[in-house]
Amino acid sequence: MTPPRNSTAARDIAYALHPYTDHKAHLKDGPLVISRGKGVRVYDEQGKEYIETVAGLWCASLGFDNERLVEAAAAQMRKLPFYHAFTSKSHEPLVDLSEMLIERAPPSADGAPMSKVFFANSGSEANDSAIKMIWYMNNALGRPEKKKIIARLRGYHGITLAAASLTGLPANHKLFDLPLPGFHHVSTPHHYHNAQPGESEEAFATRLAEELEQKILAEGPETVAAFWAEPIMGAGGVVVPPATYFPKIQAVLKKHDVLFVADEVICGFWRTGNYWGCQTLGIQPDILVCAKALSASYLPISAVIVSEKVFQGIAEGSSSIGTWGHGFTYSGHPVPAAVAIETLKIYDETDIGGHVKRVGAHMQAALRERFGDHPLVGELRGTGLIAGMELVADKAKKVNFDPAKKVGGRLSKLGEKHGLIMRAMVNDSLGFSPPLIITEAEVDEMLDRLGTALDELMVELR
Ligand code: PLP
Description:
Blueprint lengths: L7 H8 L7 H7 L4 E5 L2 E4 L4 E4 L2 H4 L8 H13 L12 H13 L11 E5 L2 H18 L7 E5 L8 H6 L16 E4 L4 H4 L6 H19 L4 E6 L15 H11 L3 E5 L13 H5 L5 E4 L11 E5 L1 H14 L12 H16 L2 H20 L5 E7 L2 E6 L15 H11 L2 E2 L1 E3 L3 E4 L7 H22 L1
Parallel strand pairs: 3-13, 5-6, 5-7, 7-8, 8-9
Antiparallel strand pairs: 1-2, 2-3, 4-10, 9-10, 11-12, 12-15, 14-15
Protein name: Aspartate aminotransferase family protein
Cofactor: pyridoxal 5'-phosphate
InterPro entries: Aminotrans_3 (IPR005814), Aminotrans_3_PPA_site (IPR049704), PyrdxlP-dep_Trfase (IPR015424), PyrdxlP-dep_Trfase_major (IPR015421), PyrdxlP-dep_Trfase_small (IPR015422)
């Protein structure tokens, strides 16, 4: 349907270049224009209401109308709307937020508390910054050959040149001439599809740790700098690894002096039922990257939290050159920093962790109860308030649909009709990560609508 002339939709088609969009389809179909939000819901221009099953992009953790965050931004704008952090300049929001993050960070790989925080504006920038920190550190420590980075197929770490090279999804590489040299990918820890017949989760985890070790040995441990992982893969389809996967991986990394970088951009701040995904999955990172729920996504901010060992490496290099030549105009911008501080206070004061544990347990159980036996549902996975539902053509044989059928996308479209904004990903997996404030009743409403959409999809596919 052609949108009315001069409508927001028509002007969008005329002028906007959208991220993650099939542009030719967009020219034809136009956008879904969202104009306001309340709680876990957003409303389009016609006033139609949707439950945001993915909190936008796994990020609007406190929903869409938190007044405290609005006030925090306004107050900071009035006091100091901008200042930077270059050349030893500082300001209170930057210092307060750094301190809060260090207090809350998990212990580093060497058992000591994390040491310092660097701020950027997005998850991609934070991952790029962490890569540059590691390269810089290894040059400063006199081991310039130790630069290669190993990530995982289906991992998602963003889209800037280096972050996209970490990412292990074809759409982020094809036609972009990526990944860059020196970036490698090992297997996805997805037992459902990747285990050998009869292989237990434990044996699967052992095999993947061995695969990583073989990769490090083949490349030469003296050339491998870091391993990158999301505790639970998000955009790759919500893949939860076996319980012993990360401890086994971590042991291999320690043995070969390879750093562990935990990308907590989705998992951080209670999403998995603990403050950090690292705690849920048994990871002690050398570097932790976070964003999204750090500021409930009301303003852009991301952080790279580093261990003392990494900080010492960077400090060494910077004193030899006279500066650490890295940083963004908006690194630690006072307004997003003030919003992030308020966000972390809200998490603490409202016991959002206790809430996620309760409502998350309900969501996980209800998903399995309602859809576990559904003929289209191959696997339900997740913990806390993050879940994945994979649609399959053959449940017994775990066979996916032909990707050309876009079955996940069709479910997401049907969901839209019934008041759900959903996210379809690899292998027709739908991701659920609603705002952390969602109630049990709202989860039930979301799943009622999902059930209706799934039933309609069944009819369509007959
Ligand atoms: N890392 C993870 C785990 C993510 O999920 C994302 C975004 O979804 C990113 C990094 C990239 O963040 P951004 O889109 O803010 O660059």
